[in-house]
């Protein structure tokens, strides 16, 4: 399978400025830029970086840009309101965070990391208007979807700063074309309007043909919105924002109707392996083999083998409380304490006291009612008694759960 065929099969091709996708089969130089409105990427960003990985693995020379300059302005793409400006100190912090994640994602690939602040910091306003602004038509710019929406009836309006973002990103492409030989820019479809700025600018200023390629946005089916940084419930690559266990659990809980698409987008598994895995999944969907492979592959890519192994073990313990005695490998118990509520109790302590201490019940009265109703399990076994028994504690700990919802689980350790 050629690169272009593989990218099409995986779902990475939406809009493009070249006619035939086989143009992609001859490796050249491409770039991908990242907004630094936060100090971490999300799984929405990760999808585009997976497109970049496939290009890099196919021999394309890779230039990865962090927007130290563009982030000072704010990208209007995909937004219905003006972004609040961040300080230069905030942007510098965010750039450092994104750079670290990019290096980790491409640790096994050759790539060059650049920051557009390096070439924008010395450009004068009049120089920019003459060299760049003169080549853009206001008519064309105001017709681009995200600008027209913001300026139209019912729109939130747009500042001159955000309106000018198009020109800034266009100049990025021109600078990278001149200095790095870049002939392809990639991004997600919410960036298509911005991506179209560099192609005509390079044609007008250098008489050269370059191209842009965008992939579809990955949409959260629950909200109908993209997996973005400003969206509620964002899944971050930074372990301090989304723990490796939470990250792993996001993928293990992917719906059956999305798991094949996510295997294509978010893993490097071959077409043959994905098709074989999906066949096994369809034969025994309750085993969730496809989700398990997806969760392992993406978590390993982002967090490494050790964190993935820990996340998998913590998840298994929460799902199967009877396995609590096995949570003794270094890091597993510590991670478990971070993921669920915890409290301590004497070996013969009152169960109601532990339920309230772990915030599974608002009061001891409610805790006693839950016990009487048979709503409490210890290590997966339903109990209605008043006190713990020494046999409940496995290795000095147990898992207590209210009802069937996994998040209503707490770790109780012997005091």
In short:
The chain has 415 residues and is an alpha/beta fold.
List keywords for this structure.
single chain; 415 residues; alpha/beta; Rossmann fold; Tyrosyl-Transfer RNA Synthetase; Structural Genomics Hypothetical 15.5 Kd Protein In mrcA-pckA Intergenic Region, Chain A; 3 domains; 6-stranded mixed β-sheet; 5-stranded mixed β-sheet; 18 helices; 45% helix; 13% strand; elongated
**Please, how many domains?**
3
- Within the CATH hierarchy, at the fold level, what is the topology of the largest domain? Rossmann fold
Mass-distribution shape: elongated
Broad CATH class of the largest domain: Alpha Beta
Could you say which structural class the secondary elements and strand pairing correspond to? alpha/beta
Rg result = 26 Å
Structural overview:
- The protein has helices spanning 3-10, 43-57, 88-105, 117-120, 125-131, 138-142, 145-151, 160-163, 165-180, 192-195, 198-206, 244-252, 256-266, 271-283, 289-319, 332-339, 351-357, 364-372, and strands at 15-16, 29-34, 61-66, 112-115, 184-188, 211-215, 219-220, 225-226, 341-345, 376-378, 381-382, 397-402, 409-414.
- The chain has 415 residues and is of the alpha/beta class.
- It folds into three domains: 3-226, 3-Layer(aba) Sandwich (Rossmann fold); 244-319, Tyrosyl-Transfer RNA Synthetase; 334-414, Roll (Structural Genomics Hypothetical 15.5 Kd Protein In mrcA-pckA Intergenic Region, Chain A), CATH 3.10.290.10.
- The strands form three sheets. The chain has a six-stranded mixed beta sheet with strand order 1-6-5-2-3-4, with helices on both faces. The chain has a five-stranded mixed beta sheet with strand order 9-13-12-10-11, with helices on both faces. Strands 7-8 form a two-stranded antiparallel ribbon.
């Amino acid at each position: 399978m050629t690169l272009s065929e593989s990218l099409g099969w995986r779902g990475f091709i939406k809009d493009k400025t070249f006619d035939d996708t086989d143009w992609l089969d001859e490796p050249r130089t491409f770039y991908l830029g990242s907004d630094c409105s936060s100090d971490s990427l999300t799984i929405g960003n990760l999808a585009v970086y997976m497109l970049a990985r496939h290009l890099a693995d196919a021999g394309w020379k890779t230039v990865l840009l962090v927007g130290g300059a563009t982030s000072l302005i704010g990208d209007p793409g995909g937004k219905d309101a003006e972004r609040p400006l961040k300080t230069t100190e905030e942007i510098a912090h965010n750039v450092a965070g994104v750079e670290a994640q990019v290096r980790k994602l491409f640790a096994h690939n050759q790539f060059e990391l650049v920051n557009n602040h390096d070439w924008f910091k010395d450009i004068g306003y009049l120089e920019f208007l003459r060299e760049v602004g003169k080549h853009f038509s206001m008519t064309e710019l105001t017709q681009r979807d995200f600008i027209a929406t913001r300026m139209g009836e019912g729109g939130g309006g747009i500042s001159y700063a955000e309106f000018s973002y198009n020109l800034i990103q266009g100049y990025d492409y021109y600078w990278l074309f001149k200095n790095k030989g870049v002939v392809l820019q990639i991004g997600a479809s919410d960036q298509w309007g911005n991506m179209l700025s560099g192609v005509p600018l390079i044609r007008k200023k250098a008489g050269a043909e370059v191209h842009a390629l965008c992939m579809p946005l990955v949409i959260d089916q629950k909200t109908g919105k993209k997996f973005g940084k400003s969206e509620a419930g964002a899944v971050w690559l930074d372990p301090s924002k989304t723990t490796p266990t939470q990250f792993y659990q996001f993928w293990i809980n992917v719906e059956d109707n999305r798991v094949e698409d996510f295997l294509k987008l978010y893993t490097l598994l071959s077409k043959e392996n994905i098709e074989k895995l999906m066949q096994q999944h369809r034969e025994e969907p309750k085993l969730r083999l496809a989700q398990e492979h997806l969760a392992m592959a993406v978590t390993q890519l982002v967090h490494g083998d050790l964190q993935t192994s820990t996340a998998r073990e913590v998840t298994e313990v929460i799902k199967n409380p009877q396995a609590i005695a096995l949570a003794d490998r270094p890091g597993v118990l510590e991670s478990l304490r971070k993921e669920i509520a915890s409290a301590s109790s004497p070996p013969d302590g009152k169960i109601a006291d532990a339920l309230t201490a772990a915030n599974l019940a608002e009061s001891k009265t409610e805790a006693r009612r839950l016990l009487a109703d048979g709503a409490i399990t210890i290590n997966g076994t339903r109990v209605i008694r008043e006190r713990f028994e020494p046999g409940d504690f496995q290795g000095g700990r147990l898992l207590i759960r209210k009802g069937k919802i996994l998040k209503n689980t707490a770790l109780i350790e012997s005091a």
